[in-house]
Amino acid sequence: MPRLILTRQAREDVLSIWAYIAQHDTTAADKLVQRINELLKKLAAHPGMGALQEQYREGLRCFPIGKYVIFYESIENGIQVIRILHGARRLEDLL
């Protein structure tokens, strides 16, 4: 089974995403978090799916999900998720 590690900041990102969306629709928030979790499992199994983003950090990859972008690094037998951010944010300030 592939390893999937979320940094503290990535876990906080997921909680923040859920809280923001849940202000208007808890069902939509739950569904998005479920979609994120499913995608993270796929990325852990196939780390090369994401595009390299080495302008921010060597070995960093990203993969979009809706309006959000998952940033991660390959590790032995899986991935480590660095951040999950809204695509409209100034990414260079957050990575």
Automatic annotation (TrEMBL):
Family under the similarity heading: Belongs to the RelE toxin family.
Name of the protein described by the UniProt record: Toxin
Stored InterPro entries: ParE1/4, RelE/ParE_toxin, RelE/ParE_toxin_dom_sf, TA_system_RelE-like_toxin
Gene3D superfamilies in UniProt: RelE-like
Top-rank taxon, per record: Bacteria
Gene source species: Gimesia fumaroli
Tagged with keyword Translocase: no
Keywords of the record: Toxin-antitoxin system
Keyword Transferase set for record: no
Signal peptide feature range: none
